[in-house]
Design brief:
The protein has one domain (6-77): 434 Repressor (Amino-terminal Domain) (Orthogonal Bundle). By secondary structure, it is mainly alpha-helical. The protein has helices spanning 6-19, 24-31, 35-42, 50-59, 72-77. Helix 2 (24-31) packs across helix 3 and helix 2 crosses helix 4 (50-59). 49% of the residues lie in helices and 0% in strands.
Length: 94
């Protein structure tokens, strides 16, 4: 089983943000970050602090959760999708 990379997490954040109909600018306001910071994160150019990732997630209506390694199969069975994203690799759609 592979674990998501920072880039895969960034892509999942971008896909979730887009699905929620939230712009980078709006998410920045919700999370206390700039649109440029969000663009750089979604492009995989920066590795945000955990506290910033938590605020980004909450800004789009999801939560960051730590799952014990041996519980990952159960979490996946319940619908968790580590590294899920749109995979388009694009940056900044403000």
């Amino acid at each position: 089983m592979t674990h998501p990379t920072v880039l895969e997490i960034a892509r999942a954040v971008r896909a979730t943000r887009r699905a929620a109909g939230v712009s980078q600018r709006e998410l920045g306001q919700r999370a206390g970050l700039t649109q440029a910071q969000i663009s750089r994160f979604e492009a995989g150019l920066v590795n945000p602090r955990l506290s910033s990732l938590v605020e980004l997630a909450r800004g789009i209506g999801v939560e960051v959760m730590l799952v014990p390694r041996d519980a990952v199969p159960a979490a996946l069975a319940l619908g968790a999708e580590p590294g899920a994203g749109d995979g388009d690799g694009g940056a900044g759609d403000g």
